């Protein structure tokens, strides 16, 4: 990767030098044309006087002929000037295009890395993160990298994006593998965070069969890898395993109320099977498993068009569009900021607790209230709140009981809804204003240092 970075820098330098040479050539050419135009009339007058000295006045050209010749010369000069102007405009357009390409190339060259703690070989772990280029996975990768571990990201980029982790490209502790975990993977790892799966309704409903395969075959492959190499594995489950709950708030002991043939079943039932697989491997193959039931999470690096409540409302409010609430707006949700969730995942992996654990924020809001909160946080927002048709199988109440996380992991969310939403709004504003790639848009609250 370091050699690739050097090649990129050489390419940037060569393109920049060529651009300068083109500009200098065009300037010199324009000066030469202007000088030719200015010199021609004087030359014509001097030649006229020499002809008078050596020729008879009877042989001098007529005045009309002389004027016609002047007109022809002027037209010719005008054509030269027009052509040179056109060439100059084309050159400027090419230079602008080159500048844009240079900006893109510079954006792909990692100039600095976030500060990374040094760990000795006994403390440093080799950690695999499936779905590591996604929303939650990329934030988890940031923390693991800054802690000094070796991190391998595996992603098929269905919903993940390279730019979520591009600030680590070339780092000695970082490795990226473009791979679909539906197919077996053979690598070495001490710990596995299995986060790979589309999580927003539009994404997992887009290809329901693929969603089921990712959560079943993909989970089997990761559990098989954990068994072969003796790694501890954390399965990222979801609050969707509770379906449209009849118990509120939802404790881990609640079995759920799920429609097995509804539009959300590919994700709900896929995650329920993933949990079953995890504990089957734990009992039969003695695999060390952890299961996190993740509730609604938000923060920077969310997809702007993933169809979730937070991203929908913020994008509509920023653009002064109508904020659409599906249903009557009385359904409730609890929103956890992404950094709090990552802390919970790390605490669960480090603990000895093996049963499922709810990770989410227990502060509950109706969707209608949430829409008004976001509208008030966006300066100058002129959006109105309107209701739309209810979504099929949409849970009416959702709030985690986090007693187990508090007692077993000593974990609880810290970031308030106001602070978390403000950071997310700032992120989406910058996303809307983006025109080129550059590496400082990573939304990490860490220091940076020179490349290794």
From TrEMBL:
Transmembrane segments: 12-28
UniProt keyword Mitochondrion, yes or no: no
Pathway(s) served: Nucleotide-sugar biosynthesis; UDP-alpha-D-xylose biosynthesis; UDP-alpha-D-xylose from UDP-alpha-D-glucuronate: step 1/1
Top-level taxon: Eukaryota
InterPro entries from the UniProt entry: NAD(P)-bd_dom, NAD(P)-bd_dom_sf, UXS-like
SUPFAM superfamilies: NAD(P)-binding Rossmann-fold domains
Family recorded in the similarity comment: Belongs to the NAD(P)-dependent epimerase/dehydratase family. UDP-glucuronic acid decarboxylase subfamily.
Protein name as it appears in the record: UDP-glucuronic acid decarboxylase 1
Any Pfam family hit: GDP_Man_Dehyd
Keyword Membrane: yes
GO MF term (any one): NAD+ binding
Keywords associated with the record: Coiled coil, Decarboxylase, Glycoprotein, Golgi apparatus, Lyase, Membrane, NAD, Signal-anchor, Transmembrane, Transmembrane helix
Origin species: Euphydryas editha
Cofactor: NAD(+)
